[in-house]
């Protein structure tokens, strides 16, 4: 059994896994604390992690019907993330591991998002192409083995989730912006407003979202407050469609064999998986479903609560990494 802790951003998370099975997955979201600031305030996040982490770990053990002594190894996110937030998780994991002379595994947060796909039900086996879209990162990962991945393309500026969070703010919606825009877009016309599809014809597999945010800024300015609120559903639907379009266009290009137009068996992928908070988005899930169906690709979608930050995905990644025996990890810095 692995006990994992994840505190890289604004969710305090602990989970217990047994092989690919999730025994418990506790997530204490601080989103409400940060909502009034319109985004995550790092210092506030660290303080909340500190207050919550012991209770979250206890809850994860209790839900798993386990005790610390039953755990074979601990795992913790070592980055990327907010340094003060990571420090709380890493210190806690070190202390718990050292108390039982257990090994500790340091996990890269993005590898965690990939590894959510290795969990039950129906764990996915490499090779597969994985789109990771979160608040801090947007990348296409080529996964050929459980323990690593290759970055095939990534955002040149904002992350997809960041574009949604900033867009929501411009539209007067709450934080986090992704789910807010998804809700506001219901019943809206995705073609009502024209937003740029950056990079769509660029042969590389990189993304760019900053122009989209600027386009919305000007649009809202031109429309004025009253008209913006009146057309909110159309604006949200059009903006969301522009974000999703770009993600799906690059995913398609990568899936069919990199930047080449023709499918090259050497570079093409047979299975597609998603990860990161934006992967919880229904439009994205539907559009990727259509892509897989039309191209005959296998599709793996994990439950929305395994897309957003959680510790089960960190435990899942840890299964395939080399653990550091006691006491080697006591010297670790907060971020790897
Ligand atoms: O993976 P995650 O929980 O944290 C990071 O590692 O960043 O991703 C958070 C991001 C936020 O930008 C949030 O707005 C977005 O994921 N998100 C969504 C949805 N749920 C969360 N975006 C679109 N649709 C959703 N349903
Ligand atoms: Zn994340």
Structural write-up:
- The chain has 336 residues and is an alpha/beta fold.
- The protein is 42% helix and 19% strand.
- The protein is built from 11 helices and 10 strands.
- It has helices spanning 31-35, 42-63, 83-99, 109-115, 160-170, 177-184, 210-230, 232-255, 282-295, 304-307, 312-318; strands at residues 2-6, 11-18, 21-29, 73-79, 104-108, 128-133, 138-145, 148-154, 271-275, 298-300.
- The strands form 2 sheets. It has a 5-stranded mixed β-sheet with strand order 3-2-1-4-5, with helices on both faces.
- The longest helix is centred in the C-terminal third of the chain and has 24 residues, at 232-255.
- The relative contact order is 0.18.
- The model has no long low-confidence stretch (mean pLDDT 94).
- Zinc ion is lined by residues 109, 113, 134, 276, 309.
List the helices and strands and how they pair.
Blueprint: E1 2-6, E2 11-18, E3 21-29, H1 31-35, H2 42-63, E4 73-79, H3 83-99, E5 104-108, H4 109-115, E6 128-133, E7 138-145, E8 148-154, H5 160-170, H6 177-184, H7 210-230, H8 232-255, E9 271-275, H9 282-295, E10 298-300, H10 304-307, H11 312-318
Parallel strand pairs: 1-4, 4-5, 6-9, 9-10
Antiparallel strand pairs: 1-2, 2-3, 6-7, 7-8
């Amino acid at each position: 059994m692995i006990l994992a802790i994840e505190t890289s951003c604004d969710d305090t998370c602990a989970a217990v896994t047994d092989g690919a099975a999730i025994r418990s997955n506790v997530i204490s979201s601080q989103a409400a604390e940060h909502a009034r600031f319109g985004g995550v305030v790092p210092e506030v996040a660290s303080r909340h992690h500190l207050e919550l982490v012991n209770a979250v770990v206890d809850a994860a053990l209790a839900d798993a019907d386990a005790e610390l002594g039953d755990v074979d190894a601990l795992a913790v996110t070592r980055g990327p993330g907010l340094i003060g937030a990571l420090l709380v998780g890493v210190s806690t994991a070190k202390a718990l591991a050292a108390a039982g002379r257990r090994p500790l595994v340091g996990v890269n947060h993005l590898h965690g998002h990939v590894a959510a796909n290795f969990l039950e039900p129906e764990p996915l086996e490499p090779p597969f192409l994985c789109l990771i879209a979160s608040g801090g990162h947007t990348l296409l990962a080529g996964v050929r083995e459980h323990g690593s991945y290759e970055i095939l393309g990534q955002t040149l500026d904002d992350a997809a989730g960041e574009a949604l969070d900033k867009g929501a703010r411009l539209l007067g919606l709450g934080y986090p912006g992704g789910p807010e825009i998804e809700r506001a877009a219901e019943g809206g016309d995705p073609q009502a407003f024209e937003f740029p599809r950056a990079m769509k014809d660029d042969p590389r597999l990189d993304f760019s979202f900053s122009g989209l945010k600027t386009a919305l800024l000007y649009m809202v300015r031109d429309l004025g407050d009253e008209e913006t609120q009146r057309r909110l559903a159309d604006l949200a639907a059009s903006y969301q469609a522009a974000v999703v379009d770009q993600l799906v266009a690059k995913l398609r290009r990568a899936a069919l064999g990199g930047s080449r137009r023709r499918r090259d068996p050497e570079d093409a992928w047979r299975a597609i998986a998603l990860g990161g908070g934006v992967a919880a988005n229904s439009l994205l899930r539907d559009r990727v479903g259509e892509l897989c169906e039309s191209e005959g690709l296998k599709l793996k979608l994990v439950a929305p609560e395994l897309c957003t930050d959680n510790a089960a995905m960190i435990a899942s990644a840890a299964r395939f990494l080399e653990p550091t025996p006691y006491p080697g990890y006591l010297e670790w810095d907060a971020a790897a």
